[in-house]
Amino acid sequence: MKIAILGASSFIGKQLLDRLTSLGHEIIAIIREGSSSKSLFESTELVKTVECNMDKYFTLADSITNLDCLVYLTWDGTRGSSRDDYKKQENNYNIGIATIEAFAKRGCKKIVLAGSQAEYGPLTENKKISETDETHPNTEYGKFKLKLYDDALKIANRYSMTLLEPRFFSLYGPNDYEGTMIISVLKKMLKDLSCDLTECIQIWDFLYIDDAIDALVILIEKANNTGIYNFGSGESYQLKHYIECMKKLTHSQSVLNYGVVPYPKTGIVNVNPAVDKLKSIGWAPKVTFEEGILNIIDSLNNEMKDN
């Protein structure tokens, strides 16, 4: 297959590219102009890098032709206060819809559009949420992510193109963003530093990056029914369960200060996806939470040795 990846240098993009090339697919890796990541993608003849900033994505359809699948992973402003920056999130939507329309017109057969749990809105009840549940996004990020999928669906129907949205919940793995709960807490635990936490009674589901890549490959290679797929492991526990597991695996002497960090006024938010639909197309998670954390610990230890 000929596959283009927008956001090829991202946490997901790098590992997806490696997997797809190992399977013999031809990849166009689209990265920012002047990106230092370019050298990472030039080790195989199956990969061609294209430098392009987000605001010009829609122009790529003129030069990247006969495309079997476009994987759209890019979004600006996914963390912190940027999530409620209306103009920034609207700009993401405008770029996305123009790009999807352009590639659809050029005959792209399939688009895999990265979604987010934010599209559902806060899940305050202790129940699993499925792809058919009502959406109530409460951030501009979630609202515009959802709007992009809904409007991209209209384009897909108009051009008889398959549109798939992997709706990501909580991915984790080595080399993830250092501000994530898992990476930041593990770094403290490895140094025996105290950890200030919420009560950690919210329900959570973590999906290891390799299992997420397995699922994405199935969507790219085999799935032809347009729709949303929740990306989670299918196993969920109180967050405290995972924290205690991390402390055990790091052999840490860190003091865990549960309840020091208050929950927001909006209340406790759970991350608890139903993944039956993903499993129905032949996917199943392979990496346990313990195995995933041990892999991250090894990576962090190697990083500390290098520094």
Describe this entry's structure for a reader.
The protein is α/β, with parallel strands linked by helices. The protein folds into two domains: 2-171 and 207-231, 3-Layer(aba) Sandwich (Rossmann fold), CATH 3.40.50.720; 176-204 and 235-272 and 279-306, UDP-galactose 4-epimerase, domain 1 (Alpha-Beta Complex), CATH 3.90.25. The chain has eight helices and 14 strands. It has helices at 11-22, 86-105, 140-158, 181-190, 209-221, 239-250, 276-279, 289-306, and strands at 2-6, 26-31, 47-51, 69-72, 110-113, 115-116, 162-168, 171-172, 195-196, 203-204, 207-208, 227-231, 237-238, 256-257. The strands form four sheets. Strands 1, 2, 3, 4, 5, 6, 7 and 12 form an eight-stranded parallel β-sheet that branches. Helix 2 packs parallel to helix 3 (140-158) and helix 4 (181-190) runs parallel beside helix 6 (239-250). The termini are far apart. The mean pLDDT is 94.
